[in-house]
Design goal:
The protein has eleven helices and 15 strands. By secondary structure, it is an alpha+beta fold. The strands form three sheets. It has an eight-stranded mixed sheet with strand order 6-5-4-8-7-3-13-14. The longest helix has 15 residues, at about 270-285. Bound molecules: aspartic acid.
Length: about 325
């Protein structure tokens, strides 16, 4: 049943309120109800569809995704359409067109996508293509593989009608030339204009999908691939449990298989926020010193439409769009 109708129904009864991360009914299931009755009742208050994405550029990206979701489209179509917005925006200096280049002045892109059937596709170290997320989707749908990288990924994209473009904007070239003066490689904790976009969504059928796309860490070594195109690190979806995505220094996320860990922690019964917090604490435990110097943030959504985030350092935020939360930007809780 459509959640707008549920919302109207519940508010008409005067029995609803909002709490952080969830649309909560005041009518709680009773012990006398059978499990399936309780389940049915909780499903009726599920705040779906819903879309979440990382950082401020998540707000315009969510707009794109919401157009699809609110028209009854699938979470998969929504997460592709959504992240294409920052990919094409030259002002977003950490994703797609206009992304900061590697130390050799080349813009190399990483992206992946995953749907409710655990189908997934990914591209890494891809140059010259404005929408790596759409190439990742095509890898998922048209090949027997999950991941294509570098020239192979570019050849595949060009053979499938994508255009070769120069993604290095004059602004990014200028910043790179400035960086060359010192050539000091140091990930900045919360990068201006912020980081990777990871997007997770649930459609009106209750199905989950996710996408993740980035130009990676600015001035990285040529050939470096981060967490963002790696299923289980930058993104993971299990339609029985939930979805999670990551942003920040990819090396720290890969080390703990971050997004997969968050989903498994939700499977064990943790709330999305607790699952993200425990994953962040794992990073702290494994690399105590490094964890003080870098940023990592996780964002998660479960099958009930509850969501939450957690990060290492202050400064990570995410955008939420649903029938009850109209594209709000929320600060993630932080460890330090
Ligand atoms: N996770 C990305 C990477 O390591 C970068 C980011 O989110 O800022 O490539």
């Amino acid at each position: 049943m459509n959640s707008r109708r549920n919302f109207i129904k519940l508010t008409a009864l005067g029995t609803s309120f909002f709490s952080f991360g969830k649309f909560m009914p005041l009518i709680a299931p009773k012990d006398s109800q059978t499990n399936s009755e309780k389940e049915k009742m909780m499903n009726e208050v599920l705040d779906s569809p819903i879309v979440l994405s990382t950082w401020e550029h998540g707000v315009p990206a969510n707009e794109g995704a919401w157009k699809v979701l609110s028209a009854g489209g699938t979470a998969l179509d929504a997460v592709e359409a959504g992240v294409k917005i920052p990919e094409a925006d030259p002002k977003v200096r950490s994703v797609g067109y206009g992304g900061l280049p590697d130390r050799d002045g080349r813009v190399t892109l990483d992206a992946c996508i995953m749907d409710e059937k655990s189908n997934c596709g990914s591209v890494a170290f891809l140059e010259h293509i404005m929408h790596p997320i759409s190439v990742a989707r095509l890898v998922m749908e048209k090949t027997p593989h999950i991941m294509l990288v570098g020239e192979g990924a570019l050849d595949f994209a060009l053979k499938n009608g994508f255009k070769k473009e120069n993604l290095l904007t004059p602004e990014s070239e200028k910043d790179w030339k400035e960086w060359l003066k010192t050539s000091e490689y140091k990930p900045v904790i919360n990068f201006e204009n912020h980081d990777t976009i990871g997007m997770i969504a649930m459609d009106k059928e209750g199905n989950l999908s996710g996408s993740c796309t980035t130009s990676g860490l600015a001035f990285k070594m040529h050939g470096r691939v981060g967490d963002s195109p790696i299923i289980g690190a930058g993104l993971f979806v299990d339609n029985e449990v939930g979805a999670a995505t990551a942003t920040g220094v990819g090396e720290e996320v890969i080390r703990i298989s971050g997004s997969h860990l968050v989903v498994e922690l939700m499977r064990q019964g943790n709330s999305p926020e607790d699952a993200c917090r425990i994953a962040v604490e794992r990073i702290v435990k494994k690399q105590p010193q490094k964890s003080k110097e870098v940023q990592v943030g996780f964002l998660a959504l479960n099958k009930k439409g509850e969501y939450g985030a957690y990060c290492l350092q202050k400064g990570f935020n995410y955008a939420v769009y649903s029938n009850t939360v109209h594209n709000s930007l929320i600060e993630g809780k932080h460890h330090y």
